[in-house]
Specification:
Strand order of the largest sheet: 3-2-4-1-5-6-7
Helix content: 40-55%
Distance between the termini: 62 Å
Structural class: alpha/beta
Number of helices: 14
Shape: globular
Order of helices and strands: HHHEHEHHEHEHEHEHEHHHH
Number of strands: 7
Strand content: 5-15%
């Protein structure tokens, strides 16, 4: 019979993470992801102790439509970065099985070289069925990896057009990967996603796709002239890359470093990190308020009936929400 691991003490968690112990880091992330109240209290105390060690890493969000080659791209980019002496953490936010609640994709098998690289750490995070497929504790996990000494944190999103805004709000540099093809520079990605991008990379610019990638790159550069700038001190760029051969990745990473230097020089990085903290706070407040709202006995009793009435068109969403909020003890808001 397998004996259950004894939970580490706060001091053991802190010492292990500070030392970069990968086994302890993995257990600390599991603690962060736990929905148990006693685990939550310990996790927040641990994070508070580790906060002075955080904030130094390059935080890069990576998204793109399914099939764009995100995992191959990350495997190649991460391998190159570790070759420069950097430690790379990959937080891969997976689709979640509606039956089991577990990750559908096997991240470590999709990033074969990084999975066995001692300077890399890959953490698949089940989304927990939260909106946009964004893992509930991705922000805390990022802080833990920074405290463990990782220089670069890459956050891979599901890439289904949901949750990218949330990820863009927690990183310093947001990268959108696109496929070369048929002159459609948007390829089904919402314009709003492109407006969040600090850099757009046309992937699979190799073999038969090389010519298509050059055409797509030209279309993108033309389109970018009409998109608003996300930051006053940075203009969104477009490059062609290949996650398969590594072509263009050095240029791409040079843009990441140039972006970081521009933010530091203008004081924008400090402002960005402060804004990230505020967004994080409100995201947690919203999450906990919704959980408390749904768990309220009077709300839970009325919710199925009022939801059904809205679906059937026998009441308005406003009337239904007013009724539920009244049950929760909140007066209707009238602007």
């Amino acid at each position: 019979m397998t004996r259950k691991k004894q939970r580490l003490s706060l001091e053991e968690f802190e010492a292990g993470v500070r030392a970069g112990d990968r086994a302890v880091l993995a257990r600390a992330i599991t603690l962060i992801e736990s929905r148990e109240a006693h685990d939550g209290a310990l996790a927040q105390t641990l994070l508070t102790r580790l906060l002075p060690l955080t904030g130094r890493a390059r935080r890069v969000g990576i998204t793109g439509v399914p099939g764009v080659g995100k995992s191959t791209f990350i495997d190649e980019l991460g391998t190159r970065l570790t070759g420069r002496g950097l430690k790379v953490a990959v937080l891969a936010i997976d689709p979640t099985s509606s039956l089991s609640g577990g990750s559908i994709l096997g991240d470590k098998t999709r990033m074969a070289r990084l999975a066995v690289n001692p300077a890399a750490f890959i953490r698949p995070s089940p989304s927990g069925l939260t909106p946009g497929g964004v893992a509930r504790r991705t922000r805390e996990t990022m802080l833990l990896t920074e405290a463990a000494g990782f220089d670069v944190v890459l956050i891979e999103t599901v890439g289904v057009g949901q949750g990218e805004t949330t990820v863009a709000e927690m990183v310093d540099f947001f990268l959108v990967l696109m496929l070369p093809g048929s002159g459609d520079e948007l390829q089904g990605i919402k314009k709003g996603i492109l407006e969040l991008a600090d850099l757009i990379a046309v992937n699979k610019a190799d073999g038969d796709g090389a010519d298509r990638a050059r055409l797509a790159l030209g279309d993108l550069k033309a389109a970018l002239r009409y998109l608003p700038h996300r930051r006053p001190d940075w203009t969104t760029r477009a490059v062609a890359v290949s996650g398969q051969t590594g072509a263009g990745l050095d240029e791409l990473w040079a843009s990441v470093e140039e972006h970081r230097a521009a933010l530091e020089a203008s004081g924008g990085l400090a402002r960005l990190r402060a804004e990230q903290g505020r967004s994080w706070m409100w995201a947690l407040i919203t999450e906990r308020l919704e959980r408390a709202f749904r768990a309220h006995p009077a709300v839970a009793a009325q919710l199925p009936t009022l939801e059904a009435a809205v679906l059937e068109g026998t009441t308005t969403p406003t009337a239904a929400s007013d009724g539920l909020l009244a049950a929760f003890g909140v007066a209707p808001l009238r602007e």
